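User: C-alpha cells for this one?
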Amino acid sequence: MPGPVTLIGLGLLLTGAGAGFGSASLFVPGVGLSLLVVGLTLWVRLAASVLQIQRAPGPATLIEGENYPLHIEISTGFLPQPGAEISDPLLPSPATLAPGRKELEMEVPVHGRGRCPLKQCEVRLTDPLGIHSASKSVPINGEVLVLPRTEPVEVDRGRGGAGIAEMAGAAIASPATRIEASAVEFEIDGLRPYREGSPASRIHWPTVARTGEMIERRLIAGSCSAPFIVLDASRPVSESALDSAVRAAASLCVFFAAAGGCSLLLPGENRPLDVDSALSRWPNIHARLALVESGTSLRGAARFPRTGPVLWVSANRASEASAELRKLKAARHVLVSPGPLAQIPVAFSVAGCHGQALAALRGRVSLSAGAAA
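Assistant:
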C-alpha cells in the first residue's frame, strides 16, 4: 500500500484534474481520498500518543520446552483502537490483534537453555487499510533463565548394558535399586578462621597457641565412592552437542540423587558440587548448568581421585574425551557423549548421549572384563 503522502498527492491530483476539466467525477473521489487518508493518519497518530501497554510479569525460570504465560494488554483510552501488531522478545514473530481487541494472552514455548533477555515490548498500531502506522514500546528490564531439561536414563540390556551399568556403580539397569554411598574421606586444604559449630577436631591448635586466634583446618573431599560426574565443554563439536551433554549431566545428577547422591564438576569450577538425595542444592546447580558456555575449560578434575565411578560427560569428539577421562584416578571410567566410540557396547542412553564403560589397556580403549559380562 502506498504511503499517506503518495495517496494525498493522488487525491489532490484528482481534485485538480476535476476542477480543471470541470468534471465532478474526478473532483469527488479526489477530495474523498484525501480526507480518508488524513483521517486515518490522524486516528493512528492520536491513538499511539495515548497508547498504554501493560505486560504482566512471568516466571523468572523455565525448563526447556515449557511454556511462558505471555499476557499483554493495550489501551487507547477514549479513541477506538486500530489494529495492533505486538513484538515481544519471547515471540518468534509479531502477534496481530484485530481492531478493537485489547488483549493478547498466549502460552509461548521457550527453547534453548541459558539467559533469555527481555528488553522491550513494542506495539505497532495500523489503520484497517494499512495506510499509516505508529509504534510505541515499553522497557521490560528482566530476563528468563531457561534451565536444561532432564530426561530418563534408558538402558540397552541387549548390548551389555546391565553389565556396564553394574561396573559404573549405578543401578541404571534397575531404577528401583539404590546406591549405598560409603563415608567420604577428606584431605586438608589449608587453614581458615574458625566457624561456629565446627567440631573441635578441626581446630589447628598450634596456630591458636601462636596467634591467639581460633583457626580451623579446611577440609575437602578427597575420595568418595559416590558417582563423580564431570562436564567437559572445552571443545564441543557443535552447540547442539553441548546442549545434549548439559542435559545428560543434569539428567544423571537427578538419577543418581534418587539413588543416594553424586558429585558434579562444572567447567570453570575449582571444586565439585554435591548433589544429595534430597536435592537440597539442586535449584542452584540446575541454574549453573543452564549457564555453561562453550570453550570453558575444566579445572582441577585430577585433584579428586575417586573410589567410585567417574562419568565424563563431553560434547567433544569421543576419542579426545576418552583420552582425558583416562587421566583421572578412578575405580571405573564411563564416557558419556553424543557420538559413541565404535566397537564398545552402549550401556545406557540419556538426552541424546550414550554411556560407555572404558578401561585403559595397553594404551588403547577397550572393554573391561566386568563390562563384557
